[in-house]
Specification:
This protein is of the alpha+beta class. The chain has one domain: Glutaredoxin (3-Layer(aba) Sandwich), CATH 3.40.30. Helix content is about 30%, strand content about 25%. The chain has six helices and ten strands; from the N terminus they run H-E-E-E-E-H-E-H-E-H-E-E-H-H-E-E. The longest helix is centred in the middle third of the chain and has 16 residues. The N and C termini lie far apart (about 40 Å). About 35% of the residues are buried.
Length: about 180
Amino acid sequence: MKRLLTTCVMSLLLTSGTQAAGFEARAATAAPGLKAQDLSGAPKTLADYRGKVVLLNFWASWCPPCLREMPSMEQLRVKMAGRPLTIVALDSAETPDEVNAYLSRMKLGFPILLDPDGSNTKRWNVFALPTTFLLDAEGRVRYVLTGPTEWDEGEALGVIESLLAELPAQANQVEYGRSTPR
């Protein structure tokens, strides 16, 4: 935990504004396992999101850069409504009470998962917060970003759109008021 805090502070000092240095493209490799619970205690795995592009964000409520990027993740969720994109925020090594205290101030419409013992954070080799993995619809890691960004614009939006463009056209179309069935 101390190491994550130190890295988060260093990330804050080294990052100008909220823009991160850039995305690291990865060869499409199977994502590590993910076993977490949502805020109601329901178990969740990556299989729950198969068939969609997944933005998996590792964060903590004590991390200022994490909190700065959350509004843009919510704006992205709204902007992409009806498209095959799921945003999942995995809180690292905090209690449900700590997470809920933050969420009482920031209303988010995407799933928040808990990693109270940090086991998922370790399994995914996350050493700094925030760290975000972009997974394709088959559950493979395609991009990694360490540090915050504005998710609803610029490079981040372009990377997400490129992953969505790989899906069959029917899964990626949105009609006025409703999405096309897959």
